[in-house]
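re: the backbone from monday

yeah here it is again, tokenized this time
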């Protein structure tokens, strides 16, 4: 008699609805493509309607299901209304974020406020809005906030960015504890420097680029494809017991 073997939980997302914020480019675009490829129906959110439409059309052309929703998630009332109207969503990937790097001693209050407004305040209320919809519908879900390796270490000229991402990590843990009884998982994805428009402000400086590469033990910059599998894992049943934690995709940076 053969020994019965356990089966690997599915990475498929057929029948599930996903909301991806910051979906017009970079990590958000990669996350949306990965979720759609796995069978999810994806609602794409960002401020730029034209760019969103292009991503939506590309996903549809590849056989996926996608809708575009132009929205500024720092507008908390509009965001809550949109999530309530279009949800509930089984999966959230919040990839919206910004960085205004400067020495801490020179940081302007306006730059501090802008970074914290999007990276933390908007993230809090977007995550809450999606969780509210799931709780009302009595459905489980997976909520993923894109943090950073800089949510776990420090870096030059990054006091404000690090503050926002360290806070995001704590927020995620607390939400995971609160919503776990509802079957809602909350985690962060923490990439290193990925080739995106946001990272370009650092990578175009030869000295900064050398600093980045010297800290990535695998010896290369990240690509959008490097975050697609990790996003899919956290969103899927393969991560059914994973909550209140972080998945670091940093090429070994924080291991040092």
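seq for it, each position gets an aa:
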């Amino acid at each position: 008699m053969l020994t019965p073997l356990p089966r690997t939980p599915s990475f498929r997302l057929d029948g599930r609805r996903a909301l991806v914020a910051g979906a017009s480019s970079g990590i958000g675009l990669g996350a949306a493509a990965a979720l759609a490829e796995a069978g999810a129906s994806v609602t794409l959110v960002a401020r730029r309607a034209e760019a969103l439409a292009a991503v939506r059309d590309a996903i549809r052309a590849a056989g996926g299901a996608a809708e575009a929703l132009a929205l500024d998630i720092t507008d908390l009332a509009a965001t809550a209304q949109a999530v309530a109207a279009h949800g509930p969503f089984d999966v959230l990937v919040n990839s919206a974020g910004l960085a205004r790097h400067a020495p801490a001693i020179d940081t302007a209050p306006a730059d501090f406020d802008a970074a914290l407004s999007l990276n933390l305040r908007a993230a809090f209320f977007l995550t809450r809005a999606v969780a509210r919809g799931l709780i009302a519908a009595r459905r489980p879900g997976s909520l993923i906030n894109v943090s950073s390796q800089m949510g776990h270490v420090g870096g030059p000229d990054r006091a404000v960015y690090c503050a926002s991402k360290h806070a995001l990590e704590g927020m995620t843990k607390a939400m995971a504890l609160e919503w776990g009884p509802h079957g809602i998982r909350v985690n962060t994805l923490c990439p290193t420097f990925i080739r995106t428009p946001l990272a370009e402000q650092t990578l175009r400086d030869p000295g900064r680029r050398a600093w980045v590469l010297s800290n990535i033990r695998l010896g290369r910059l990240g690509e959008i494809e490097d975050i697609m599998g990790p996003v899919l894992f956290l969103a899927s049943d393969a991560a059914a017991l994973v909550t209140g934690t972080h998945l670091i995709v940093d090429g070994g940076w924080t291991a040092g």
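The chain has one domain: 17-248. The longest strand covers residues 184-191.
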